[in-house]
Amino acid sequence: MIKAAFSVLLVLVAMSSIFAKYIPKTGKRIPQTLSRGWGDQLIWAQTYEEALFWSRSRNKPVMVIFHLEDCPHSQALKKVFSEDDQLQKILDEDFTVLNLVYETTDKHLSPDGQYVPRILFVDPSMTVRADINGRYANRMYAYEPSDISLLISNMQKAKKLLKSEL
Amino acid sequence: MIKAAFSVLLVLVAMSSIFAKYIPKTGKRIPQTLSRGWGDQLIWAQTYEEALFWSRSRNKPVMVIFHLEDCPHSQALKKVFSEDDQLQKILDEDFTVLNLVYETTDKHLSPDGQYVPRILFVDPSMTVRADINGRYANRMYAYEPSDISLLISNMQKAKKLLKSEL
Q: Nearest-CA neighbor of B136 among B159, B122, B119?
């Protein structure tokens, strides 16, 4: 009987050490995702260097999304963006995707300033496609939720030029 | 009766459009996490630039982990690393953390070459702490699973020098 109790205790101790995990004082956190809600099914590059590497090796243009988690314009665009099946499918099949909440040191990614949300395309030759822009003259690379179809047609542009350049 | 059936159909159609989500041909994927298994409760910087920014503004040293998902040495270290409560607690409270599967353009982060797993410390003054290393002469910044206590004492070093420099 004592033996059995001891065995149970041993198993419990072993189990607790297997499942021992650090929990912050402020409570358990939800792990951060690389997608940050812009498309959980897409395979995201972590850094710009990584995105350029994949773009070159797979010959697929990069879409870079600059955004901020607590920016309502970013949030509104993200909702429509992540729920648009057509957009997500094209991105998954024909693009390298990167979303950043922090600016890079590369000035080419901010042709008319650093604002969010802002979407830039980069083709596999590593040229930033400053010619592909949205509908706002003062923020050329900004998109609003109602601009999704323009964004999709811009994605087609980013793909087309690439092919015609080959 | 027909009206009721129509209502049900309408609700079903509405629900399916609400829950419509892009699913890749190859099947649903598990979203990528920024932690990549090195500590789901830690708050990870996405890029080196972001890590340096947080390091300076919070006055906490950076730990940079270079690893590869399909490298058995990285995997073995990751398991011990993520399960060590003491290590995770210190990282959460006193460090800015970054894990990378792709090299940066900054040569200071590869003082003796680009290999994985490799752990570098950077203090808030943006100096890479090349003086804090593991026990292997040919790969100065490599750690094996059995080196966790050395890694923790190196973390204390990274913290100490910072304070004495103030």
A: B119
